[in-house]
Amino acid sequence: PPQPAARWPGVRDATQFAPHCPQPASFFGVASMSEDCLYLNVFTPAGARRPDARRLPVMVWIHGGALITGESDDYNPAGLVRHGVIVVTINYRLGALGFLAHPALAGRPGGPSGNYGLMDQQAALRWVQRNVRAFGGDPRNVTIFGESAGGLSVLSQLASPGARGLFSRAIVESGAYNLTQAPLATAEAAGEAFAAKAGCASQTAACLRSLPVSAILDNEDFSGYTPDIDGQVLTQSLKTAFASGQFNRVPVINGSNHDEWRLFVGESELEGAPVTAANYQDMIAATLGVSPVIAAVIAGEYPLSSYSSPAVALGAVGTDAIFACPALTVDQSLSAYVPTYAYEFNDENAPELFLPPVPGFSYGAAHASELQYLFSLTAGFPAALSRQQQRLAAAMKRYWTNFAKRGSPSGLGGLGPLGGTRWPQFGSASQQMLSLVPPRPQAETGFAAEHHCAFWALAS
Known about the structure:
- The protein has helices spanning 78-81, 95-99, 116-131, 149-159, 184-198, 205-210, 213-218, 238-244, 262-270, 280-288, 292-301, 310-334, 387-406, 447-450, 453-459, and strands spanning 40-43, 56-62, 75-76, 86-90, 137-147, 169-173, 182-183, 228-229, 252-257, 340-345, 376-377, 433-436, 442-444.
- The longest helix has 25 residues, at 310-334.
- By secondary structure, the chain is an alpha/beta fold.
Protein backbone atom coordinates (compact mmCIF):
# COMPACT_ATOMS: atom_id res chain seq x y z
CA PRO A 1 0.00 0.00 0.00
CA PRO A 2 1.11 3.62 -0.52
CA GLN A 3 2.89 5.29 2.36
CA PRO A 4 2.86 8.98 3.39
CA ALA A 5 5.62 11.07 1.84
CA ALA A 6 8.70 11.65 3.97
CA ARG A 7 8.90 15.08 5.54
CA TRP A 8 11.31 17.61 4.06
CA PRO A 9 12.97 20.78 5.40
CA GLY A 10 12.30 24.19 3.89
CA VAL A 11 10.19 24.90 0.80
CA ARG A 12 9.64 22.18 -1.77
CA ASP A 13 9.91 23.23 -5.41
CA ALA A 14 6.58 22.32 -7.02
CA THR A 15 6.89 24.45 -10.15
CA GLN A 16 7.40 21.50 -12.54
CA PHE A 17 5.42 18.31 -13.10
CA ALA A 18 6.90 15.33 -11.28
CA PRO A 19 7.63 11.97 -12.95
CA HIS A 20 4.66 9.87 -13.94
CA CYS A 21 4.33 6.16 -13.30
CA PRO A 22 6.22 3.42 -15.19
CA GLN A 23 4.76 2.49 -18.55
CA PRO A 24 5.83 1.68 -22.10
CA ALA A 25 5.52 4.27 -24.84
CA SER A 26 2.11 4.17 -26.55
CA PHE A 27 -0.45 6.25 -28.40
CA PHE A 28 -1.98 7.01 -24.99
CA GLY A 29 1.00 7.64 -22.71
CA VAL A 30 4.65 8.71 -22.51
CA ALA A 31 7.28 6.14 -21.55
CA SER A 32 8.49 6.31 -17.95
CA MET A 33 10.77 4.17 -15.78
CA SER A 34 10.39 6.15 -12.55
CA GLU A 35 8.83 4.39 -9.58
CA ASP A 36 8.91 7.72 -7.72
CA CYS A 37 5.63 8.77 -9.28
CA LEU A 38 2.90 9.25 -6.67
CA TYR A 39 2.35 12.97 -7.19
CA LEU A 40 -0.62 15.22 -7.83
CA ASN A 41 -1.14 18.67 -9.30
CA VAL A 42 -3.41 21.42 -7.96
CA PHE A 43 -4.96 24.03 -10.27
CA THR A 44 -6.74 26.98 -8.62
CA PRO A 45 -8.57 30.08 -9.85
CA ALA A 46 -6.92 33.42 -9.23
CA GLY A 47 -7.62 34.64 -5.71
CA ALA A 48 -8.68 31.25 -4.38
CA ARG A 49 -6.21 31.46 -1.49
CA ARG A 50 -7.25 34.90 -0.23
CA PRO A 51 -8.17 34.72 3.46
CA ASP A 52 -11.60 36.20 2.75
CA ALA A 53 -12.34 33.90 -0.23
CA ARG A 54 -15.12 31.32 0.03
CA ARG A 55 -14.16 27.67 -0.04
CA LEU A 56 -14.34 26.33 -3.60
CA PRO A 57 -15.57 22.97 -4.86
CA VAL A 58 -12.79 20.50 -5.67
CA MET A 59 -12.69 18.16 -8.68
CA VAL A 60 -10.18 15.29 -8.60
CA TRP A 61 -9.30 13.88 -12.04
CA ILE A 62 -8.30 10.22 -12.51
CA HIS A 63 -6.73 9.67 -15.94
CA GLY A 64 -7.45 6.75 -18.23
CA GLY A 65 -5.23 4.35 -20.15
CA ALA A 66 -6.42 0.76 -19.44
CA LEU A 67 -4.69 0.98 -16.02
CA ILE A 68 -1.42 0.51 -17.90
CA THR A 69 -0.68 3.90 -19.51
CA GLY A 70 -1.42 7.59 -19.00
CA GLU A 71 -0.36 10.44 -16.74
CA SER A 72 -1.85 13.36 -14.86
CA ASP A 73 0.07 16.09 -16.66
CA ASP A 74 -1.57 15.44 -20.05
CA TYR A 75 -4.71 17.24 -18.85
CA ASN A 76 -4.80 21.03 -18.51
CA PRO A 77 -8.08 21.87 -16.70
CA ALA A 78 -7.86 25.66 -17.07
CA GLY A 79 -11.27 25.78 -18.80
CA LEU A 80 -12.91 24.06 -15.83
CA VAL A 81 -11.01 26.12 -13.26
CA ARG A 82 -12.31 29.34 -14.83
CA HIS A 83 -15.78 28.29 -13.65
CA GLY A 84 -14.74 28.62 -10.01
CA VAL A 85 -13.54 25.14 -9.07
CA ILE A 86 -10.21 23.72 -7.96
CA VAL A 87 -9.01 20.77 -10.06
CA VAL A 88 -6.55 18.18 -8.78
CA THR A 89 -5.02 15.73 -11.27
CA ILE A 90 -3.34 12.62 -9.86
CA ASN A 91 -0.93 9.85 -10.77
CA TYR A 92 -1.41 6.29 -9.56
CA ARG A 93 0.56 3.10 -10.11
CA LEU A 94 -0.17 1.32 -13.37
CA GLY A 95 0.15 -2.14 -14.86
CA ALA A 96 1.72 -4.87 -12.76
CA LEU A 97 3.09 -2.30 -10.31
CA GLY A 98 -0.43 -1.08 -9.65
CA PHE A 99 -2.68 -4.07 -10.18
CA LEU A 100 -0.74 -7.35 -9.98
CA ALA A 101 -2.29 -9.68 -7.42
CA HIS A 102 0.06 -12.28 -5.95
CA PRO A 103 -0.15 -14.29 -2.71
CA ALA A 104 3.43 -13.34 -1.77
CA LEU A 105 2.43 -9.66 -1.83
CA ALA A 106 -0.83 -10.09 0.06
CA GLY A 107 -1.34 -8.23 3.31
CA ARG A 108 -2.42 -11.54 4.84
CA PRO A 109 -3.22 -15.04 3.56
CA GLY A 110 -6.25 -14.68 1.31
CA GLY A 111 -5.72 -11.00 0.59
CA PRO A 112 -5.74 -8.15 0.10
CA SER A 113 -3.60 -8.35 -3.02
CA GLY A 114 -3.53 -6.20 -6.13
CA ASN A 115 -5.54 -2.96 -6.39
CA TYR A 116 -2.52 -0.90 -5.32
CA GLY A 117 -3.44 1.72 -7.92
CA LEU A 118 -6.89 2.08 -6.33
CA MET A 119 -5.15 2.43 -2.95
CA ASP A 120 -3.03 5.22 -4.46
CA GLN A 121 -6.17 7.02 -5.59
CA GLN A 122 -7.60 6.79 -2.07
CA ALA A 123 -4.31 8.09 -0.65
CA ALA A 124 -4.57 11.07 -3.00
CA LEU A 125 -8.15 11.69 -1.87
CA ARG A 126 -7.01 11.59 1.77
CA TRP A 127 -4.31 14.12 0.87
CA VAL A 128 -7.01 16.36 -0.59
CA GLN A 129 -9.04 16.04 2.61
CA ARG A 130 -6.03 17.09 4.71
CA ASN A 131 -4.57 19.80 2.51
CA VAL A 132 -7.01 21.35 0.04
CA ARG A 133 -8.10 24.07 2.48
CA ALA A 134 -4.62 25.58 2.06
CA PHE A 135 -5.43 26.06 -1.64
CA GLY A 136 -8.87 27.56 -1.00
CA GLY A 137 -10.80 24.30 -1.50
CA ASP A 138 -13.68 22.75 0.43
CA PRO A 139 -12.86 19.19 1.55
CA ARG A 140 -16.57 18.61 2.14
CA ASN A 141 -17.32 19.21 -1.55
CA VAL A 142 -15.06 16.90 -3.59
CA THR A 143 -16.09 15.44 -6.95
CA ILE A 144 -14.08 12.56 -8.40
CA PHE A 145 -14.16 12.21 -12.17
CA GLY A 146 -12.35 10.10 -14.70
CA GLU A 147 -12.47 8.63 -18.20
CA SER A 148 -12.03 5.05 -19.47
CA ALA A 149 -9.83 3.33 -16.86
CA GLY A 150 -10.24 6.52 -14.85
CA GLY A 151 -14.02 6.09 -15.13
CA LEU A 152 -13.67 2.46 -14.04
CA SER A 153 -11.60 3.77 -11.14
CA VAL A 154 -14.40 6.17 -10.18
CA LEU A 155 -16.88 3.28 -10.23
CA SER A 156 -14.44 1.26 -8.13
CA GLN A 157 -14.20 4.05 -5.56
CA LEU A 158 -18.00 4.24 -5.46
CA ALA A 159 -17.98 0.55 -4.51
CA SER A 160 -14.94 0.62 -2.20
CA PRO A 161 -15.53 0.77 1.56
CA GLY A 162 -12.15 2.50 1.94
CA ALA A 163 -13.31 5.50 -0.10
CA ARG A 164 -16.34 6.25 2.05
CA GLY A 165 -16.43 9.93 3.02
CA LEU A 166 -13.60 10.95 0.69
CA PHE A 167 -15.86 12.47 -2.00
CA SER A 168 -19.39 13.77 -2.33
CA ARG A 169 -20.08 13.42 -6.08
CA ALA A 170 -18.80 11.30 -8.96
CA ILE A 171 -18.56 11.62 -12.77
CA VAL A 172 -17.91 8.53 -14.89
CA GLU A 173 -16.88 8.91 -18.53
CA SER A 174 -16.82 5.63 -20.52
CA GLY A 175 -15.91 3.60 -17.44
CA ALA A 176 -18.54 0.84 -17.35
CA TYR A 177 -16.62 -1.62 -19.52
CA ASN A 178 -15.75 -4.01 -16.68
CA LEU A 179 -18.50 -4.48 -14.10
CA THR A 180 -17.68 -8.06 -13.05
CA GLN A 181 -14.28 -8.26 -11.39
CA ALA A 182 -12.18 -11.40 -11.05
CA PRO A 183 -12.10 -13.11 -7.65
CA LEU A 184 -8.85 -12.93 -5.73
CA ALA A 185 -7.88 -16.54 -6.53
CA THR A 186 -8.14 -15.93 -10.27
CA ALA A 187 -6.21 -12.67 -10.05
CA GLU A 188 -3.47 -14.28 -7.95
CA ALA A 189 -3.16 -17.18 -10.41
CA ALA A 190 -2.54 -14.62 -13.15
CA GLY A 191 0.02 -12.98 -10.87
CA GLU A 192 1.84 -16.27 -10.39
CA ALA A 193 1.94 -16.75 -14.16
CA PHE A 194 3.42 -13.26 -14.49
CA ALA A 195 6.07 -14.05 -11.85
CA ALA A 196 7.17 -17.20 -13.65
CA LYS A 197 7.31 -15.39 -17.00
CA ALA A 198 9.31 -12.49 -15.52
CA GLY A 199 11.93 -14.79 -14.00
CA CYS A 200 10.62 -15.40 -10.47
CA ALA A 201 10.06 -19.15 -10.46
CA SER A 202 10.49 -18.98 -6.68
CA GLN A 203 7.23 -16.98 -6.46
CA THR A 204 8.68 -14.95 -3.56
CA ALA A 205 8.06 -11.33 -2.70
CA ALA A 206 11.82 -10.76 -2.54
CA CYS A 207 12.26 -11.87 -6.15
CA LEU A 208 9.30 -9.86 -7.39
CA ARG A 209 10.53 -6.73 -5.61
CA SER A 210 14.02 -7.15 -7.06
CA LEU A 211 12.80 -7.18 -10.67
CA PRO A 212 13.99 -4.15 -12.65
CA VAL A 213 11.22 -1.92 -13.93
CA SER A 214 12.12 -2.83 -17.50
CA ALA A 215 11.47 -6.53 -16.80
CA ILE A 216 8.12 -5.72 -15.22
CA LEU A 217 7.03 -3.63 -18.20
CA ASP A 218 8.25 -6.25 -20.68
CA ASN A 219 6.10 -8.94 -19.08
CA GLU A 220 2.93 -7.00 -18.30
CA ASP A 221 -0.44 -7.78 -19.81
CA PHE A 222 -0.43 -5.26 -22.68
CA SER A 223 -4.20 -5.54 -23.07
CA GLY A 224 -4.55 -3.69 -19.76
CA TYR A 225 -5.52 -4.46 -16.19
CA THR A 226 -8.69 -4.44 -14.11
CA PRO A 227 -9.25 -4.42 -10.34
CA ASP A 228 -9.92 -7.65 -8.47
CA ILE A 229 -12.15 -8.57 -5.53
CA ASP A 230 -9.41 -8.54 -2.93
CA GLY A 231 -11.67 -8.49 0.13
CA GLN A 232 -10.58 -5.06 1.31
CA VAL A 233 -10.44 -2.43 -1.42
CA LEU A 234 -13.22 -4.25 -3.28
CA THR A 235 -15.39 -6.74 -1.42
CA GLN A 236 -17.74 -7.54 -4.32
CA SER A 237 -18.09 -6.90 -8.04
CA LEU A 238 -19.20 -3.46 -9.18
CA LYS A 239 -22.35 -4.84 -10.80
CA THR A 240 -23.40 -6.54 -7.55
CA ALA A 241 -22.56 -3.53 -5.37
CA PHE A 242 -24.59 -1.14 -7.51
CA ALA A 243 -27.58 -3.45 -7.93
CA SER A 244 -27.78 -4.05 -4.18
CA GLY A 245 -27.24 -0.43 -3.17
CA GLN A 246 -24.05 -1.33 -1.28
CA PHE A 247 -21.95 1.56 -2.50
CA ASN A 248 -20.97 5.06 -1.45
CA ARG A 249 -24.22 6.88 -2.18
CA VAL A 250 -23.48 10.20 -3.85
CA PRO A 251 -24.95 11.89 -6.95
CA VAL A 252 -23.48 10.53 -10.19
CA ILE A 253 -23.04 11.58 -13.81
CA ASN A 254 -22.45 8.53 -16.00
CA GLY A 255 -22.07 8.35 -19.75
CA SER A 256 -20.51 6.88 -22.85
CA ASN A 257 -19.66 7.91 -26.40
CA HIS A 258 -21.74 6.95 -29.43
CA ASP A 259 -18.89 5.19 -31.28
CA GLU A 260 -16.59 4.08 -28.46
CA TRP A 261 -15.12 0.98 -30.10
CA ARG A 262 -14.19 2.71 -33.33
CA LEU A 263 -11.02 3.94 -31.61
CA PHE A 264 -9.85 0.35 -31.16
CA VAL A 265 -11.00 -0.67 -34.64
CA GLY A 266 -8.96 2.22 -36.02
CA GLU A 267 -5.94 1.11 -34.01
CA SER A 268 -6.30 -2.40 -35.44
CA GLU A 269 -6.57 -1.02 -38.96
CA LEU A 270 -3.38 1.02 -38.45
CA GLU A 271 -1.59 -2.10 -37.18
CA GLY A 272 -2.39 -3.95 -40.40
CA ALA A 273 -5.36 -6.01 -39.20
CA PRO A 274 -8.31 -4.53 -41.12
CA VAL A 275 -11.90 -5.69 -40.72
CA THR A 276 -13.29 -7.25 -43.89
CA ALA A 277 -16.50 -8.96 -44.87
CA ALA A 278 -14.59 -12.26 -44.89
CA ASN A 279 -13.20 -11.94 -41.34
CA TYR A 280 -16.09 -9.99 -39.75
CA GLN A 281 -17.39 -12.89 -37.66
CA ASP A 282 -13.87 -13.90 -36.63
CA MET A 283 -13.23 -10.31 -35.49
CA ILE A 284 -16.45 -10.34 -33.47
CA ALA A 285 -15.35 -13.58 -31.79
CA ALA A 286 -11.90 -12.14 -31.01
CA THR A 287 -13.28 -8.81 -29.76
CA LEU A 288 -15.82 -10.32 -27.38
CA GLY A 289 -14.13 -13.65 -26.60
CA VAL A 290 -17.09 -15.70 -27.83
CA SER A 291 -17.44 -18.87 -29.88
CA PRO A 292 -17.94 -18.85 -33.67
CA VAL A 293 -21.56 -19.89 -33.13
CA ILE A 294 -22.26 -16.92 -30.88
CA ALA A 295 -20.33 -14.61 -33.21
CA ALA A 296 -22.64 -15.66 -36.04
CA VAL A 297 -25.69 -14.79 -33.96
CA ILE A 298 -24.21 -11.37 -33.19
CA ALA A 299 -23.41 -10.82 -36.87
CA GLY A 300 -27.07 -11.51 -37.58
CA GLU A 301 -28.05 -8.74 -35.16
CA TYR A 302 -25.46 -6.42 -36.78
CA PRO A 303 -25.58 -7.31 -40.51
CA LEU A 304 -22.95 -5.73 -42.71
CA SER A 305 -25.71 -4.41 -44.97
CA SER A 306 -26.72 -1.99 -42.19
CA TYR A 307 -23.32 -0.28 -42.01
CA SER A 308 -21.08 1.70 -44.31
CA SER A 309 -18.18 -0.71 -43.88
CA PRO A 310 -17.18 -3.85 -41.94
CA ALA A 311 -14.99 -1.67 -39.71
CA VAL A 312 -17.93 0.53 -38.75
CA ALA A 313 -20.07 -2.57 -38.12
CA LEU A 314 -17.47 -4.03 -35.75
CA GLY A 315 -17.25 -0.64 -34.07
CA ALA A 316 -20.99 -0.80 -33.35
CA VAL A 317 -20.72 -4.32 -31.92
CA GLY A 318 -17.87 -3.39 -29.59
CA THR A 319 -19.45 -0.10 -28.59
CA ASP A 320 -22.78 -1.65 -27.63
CA ALA A 321 -21.52 -4.81 -25.92
CA ILE A 322 -18.56 -3.34 -24.03
CA PHE A 323 -19.51 0.27 -23.29
CA ALA A 324 -23.04 1.44 -24.07
CA CYS A 325 -25.24 -1.27 -22.59
CA PRO A 326 -23.07 -1.75 -19.49
CA ALA A 327 -23.32 2.03 -18.97
CA LEU A 328 -27.10 1.70 -19.16
CA THR A 329 -26.93 -1.08 -16.55
CA VAL A 330 -25.03 1.28 -14.24
CA ASP A 331 -27.60 4.03 -14.81
CA GLN A 332 -30.46 1.68 -13.98
CA SER A 333 -28.80 0.38 -10.82
CA LEU A 334 -27.52 3.67 -9.40
CA SER A 335 -30.68 5.64 -10.15
CA ALA A 336 -32.63 3.43 -7.73
CA TYR A 337 -30.55 4.87 -4.89
CA VAL A 338 -28.96 8.21 -5.85
CA PRO A 339 -29.59 11.11 -8.25
CA THR A 340 -28.14 9.89 -11.55
CA TYR A 341 -27.56 11.93 -14.70
CA ALA A 342 -26.84 9.96 -17.88
CA TYR A 343 -25.33 11.24 -21.11
CA GLU A 344 -24.17 10.11 -24.52
CA PHE A 345 -21.45 12.08 -26.29
CA ASN A 346 -22.70 12.34 -29.86
CA ASP A 347 -20.41 14.61 -31.86
CA GLU A 348 -19.84 12.44 -34.93
CA ASN A 349 -17.26 14.93 -36.20
CA ALA A 350 -15.18 15.10 -33.02
CA PRO A 351 -11.47 15.36 -33.90
CA GLU A 352 -9.48 12.18 -33.26
CA LEU A 353 -6.60 13.19 -31.00
CA PHE A 354 -4.70 9.97 -30.36
CA LEU A 355 -4.55 8.14 -33.71
CA PRO A 356 -3.79 9.28 -37.26
CA PRO A 357 -6.47 9.15 -39.96
CA VAL A 358 -7.42 5.81 -41.49
CA PRO A 359 -8.35 6.13 -45.19
CA GLY A 360 -12.03 5.44 -45.75
CA PHE A 361 -12.81 5.17 -42.04
CA SER A 362 -14.53 7.66 -39.71
CA TYR A 363 -13.75 7.56 -36.00
CA GLY A 364 -17.05 9.28 -35.17
CA ALA A 365 -17.66 9.99 -31.49
CA ALA A 366 -14.95 7.53 -30.51
CA HIS A 367 -13.61 6.50 -27.12
CA ALA A 368 -11.92 9.45 -25.36
CA SER A 369 -13.06 11.99 -27.97
CA GLU A 370 -15.03 13.97 -25.38
CA LEU A 371 -11.88 14.77 -23.39
CA GLN A 372 -10.88 17.68 -25.61
CA TYR A 373 -14.22 19.34 -24.81
CA LEU A 374 -13.29 19.47 -21.11
CA PHE A 375 -9.49 19.83 -21.08
CA SER A 376 -6.63 21.20 -23.11
CA LEU A 377 -4.81 17.97 -23.90
CA THR A 378 -1.30 16.84 -24.70
CA ALA A 379 -2.05 14.57 -27.66
CA GLY A 380 -0.39 13.22 -30.76
CA PHE A 381 -2.81 14.70 -33.32
CA PRO A 382 -4.19 17.99 -31.98
CA ALA A 383 -7.00 19.67 -33.89
CA ALA A 384 -9.01 22.83 -33.36
CA LEU A 385 -12.69 22.60 -32.47
CA SER A 386 -15.14 24.30 -34.81
CA ARG A 387 -17.30 27.15 -33.55
CA GLN A 388 -20.24 24.81 -32.93
CA GLN A 389 -17.99 22.32 -31.17
CA GLN A 390 -16.65 25.12 -29.00
CA ARG A 391 -20.24 25.90 -27.97
CA LEU A 392 -20.70 22.26 -26.98
CA ALA A 393 -17.42 22.33 -25.08
CA ALA A 394 -18.52 25.44 -23.18
CA ALA A 395 -21.81 23.76 -22.25
CA MET A 396 -20.05 20.59 -21.08
CA LYS A 397 -17.64 22.51 -18.87
CA ARG A 398 -20.60 24.31 -17.33
CA TYR A 399 -22.53 21.06 -16.76
CA TRP A 400 -19.51 19.38 -15.15
CA THR A 401 -18.71 22.31 -12.85
CA ASN A 402 -22.37 22.96 -11.97
CA PHE A 403 -22.53 19.34 -10.84
CA ALA A 404 -19.38 19.76 -8.76
CA LYS A 405 -20.79 22.88 -7.12
CA ARG A 406 -24.36 21.77 -6.41
CA GLY A 407 -24.87 18.12 -7.33
CA SER A 408 -27.00 19.06 -10.35
CA PRO A 409 -25.49 19.66 -13.82
CA SER A 410 -28.30 22.05 -14.70
CA GLY A 411 -27.38 24.43 -11.90
CA LEU A 412 -29.68 26.89 -10.19
CA GLY A 413 -33.27 26.98 -11.36
CA GLY A 414 -32.91 23.73 -13.28
CA LEU A 415 -31.77 25.45 -16.49
CA GLY A 416 -28.88 24.20 -18.54
CA PRO A 417 -25.72 26.23 -19.17
CA LEU A 418 -26.43 29.75 -20.37
CA GLY A 419 -30.15 29.01 -20.18
CA GLY A 420 -29.82 26.01 -22.52
CA THR A 421 -31.06 22.43 -22.27
CA ARG A 422 -31.97 21.17 -18.82
CA TRP A 423 -30.32 17.83 -17.98
CA PRO A 424 -33.05 15.50 -16.67
CA GLN A 425 -32.39 12.90 -14.01
CA PHE A 426 -32.26 9.36 -15.29
CA GLY A 427 -35.09 7.06 -14.27
CA SER A 428 -35.53 3.42 -15.25
CA ALA A 429 -39.00 4.11 -16.66
CA SER A 430 -38.24 7.12 -18.86
CA GLN A 431 -34.51 6.46 -19.40
CA GLN A 432 -33.94 10.12 -20.20
CA MET A 433 -30.38 11.08 -21.06
CA LEU A 434 -28.63 14.13 -22.40
CA SER A 435 -27.24 13.83 -25.90
CA LEU A 436 -24.07 15.91 -26.01
CA VAL A 437 -24.30 17.06 -29.60
CA PRO A 438 -23.13 20.38 -31.05
CA PRO A 439 -24.00 23.10 -30.85
CA ARG A 440 -26.62 22.50 -28.16
CA PRO A 441 -27.21 19.29 -26.17
CA GLN A 442 -30.63 17.67 -26.43
CA ALA A 443 -32.62 15.25 -24.27
CA GLU A 444 -32.92 11.72 -25.69
CA THR A 445 -34.78 8.53 -24.73
CA GLY A 446 -33.81 6.10 -27.52
CA PHE A 447 -30.40 5.00 -26.22
CA ALA A 448 -31.36 1.41 -25.32
CA ALA A 449 -32.96 0.72 -28.70
CA GLU A 450 -30.18 2.32 -30.72
CA HIS A 451 -27.53 0.25 -28.96
CA HIS A 452 -29.46 -3.07 -29.06
CA CYS A 453 -29.41 -3.35 -25.27
CA ALA A 454 -32.35 -5.79 -25.15
CA PHE A 455 -30.30 -8.13 -27.35
CA TRP A 456 -27.24 -7.83 -25.14
CA ALA A 457 -29.34 -8.39 -22.01
CA LEU A 458 -30.47 -11.71 -23.48
CA ALA A 459 -26.94 -12.54 -24.64
CA SER A 460 -25.55 -12.08 -21.14
